[in-house]
């Protein structure tokens, strides 16, 4: 029993090199990797630079995702941008968690329960989409607040949870400093995703806990992915652990 997750900072659909707004490139990248769960960051809603498109609805519709939720993070002169989750399966109870630190840009986590039906079984996964801050101390405080939040506290320790997104993990220290002590595993080993044209940094991360195993992870490097954004997408394949293999 398996599924695929894709996390992707889409940079509002604007190319990292040519600076052109081409949402069809973003769509092509998402469709190419055929993920079941898609976590997007820097999604525009009603902003001039992206032709006032409602990008979350537009991309979800174009890519065939019935289930979606969007979170407004940052207001701009016209419109706003934030995070979005698309899913092949129902998303229940979507909610926001304010991660904003004093004197820093507004940041939130978008969280939901994904109810998956596979091979005659029902699974619930806690899905958390983040776009963390630019300062090292800021990121650690944001993750500490996340790990103490009511949403995660309401889930059984056996319930699978995936925390993914643009961690801005410049120093590759957030796993060791925060996530591993909180019981998470890294789904990948610092795969470089930024800048998309010639990746040097592993800014995008996927951590998980509960009854899951990561069976593979890679950055999406098809030609259009190098042009569509300033980040490459990060793709992780998961399997559910057998029920008797999950710790009580």
UniProtKB/TrEMBL annotation:
GO terms for molecular function: catalytic activity. Residues 6-231 form the Endonuclease/exonuclease/phosphatase domain. GO terms for cellular component: membrane. Gene3D superfamilies: Endonuclease/exonuclease/phosphatase. GO terms for biological process: GPI anchor biosynthetic process. InterPro entries: Endo/exonu/phosph_ase_sf (IPR036691), Endo/exonuclease/phosphatase (IPR005135), GPI-anchor_lipid_remodeler (IPR051916). This is Endonuclease/exonuclease/phosphatase domain-containing protein.
